[in-house]
Write a structure and sequence with these properties.
Number of strands: 0
Helix content: over 70%
Radius of gyration: 24 Å
Order of helices and strands: HHH
Structural class: mainly alpha
Shape: elongated
Number of helices: 3
Largest sheet: none
Distance between the termini: 55 Å
Strand content: under 5%
């Protein structure tokens, strides 16, 4: 009985490690790629928030500040896309 249990345990371990049909192994992503991806996502979230604030802002000075921040974020996103 112990032998049968061991073979089932080995089989389950192998099924976890090997991808099934149509599945690919997850690509190892370097730390810098992950950091760049996280930074990009945060910038996009900030950009969406600022765009939303711009639609509701009434004060002209505040609108100018938002435009400046959006320009800064756009420059940061462009810099991230050129870094490879």
């Amino acid at each position: 009985m112990a032998r049968g249990w061991e073979s089932k345990d080995v089989e389950s371990q192998q099924s976890v490690l090997s991808p099934g049909p149509g599945k690919r192994l997850r690509r190892d992503v370097s730390t810098t790629d992950r950091e760049r991806s996280n930074r990009r996502e945060l910038l996009l979230l900030d950009r969406a928030r600022l765009t939303n604030e711009l639609t509701t802002a009434r004060n002209e000075r505040f609108r100018l500040q938002i435009h400046a921040e959006l320009s800064f974020i756009d420059r940061q996103l462009a810099k991230l896309s050129t870094e490879v």
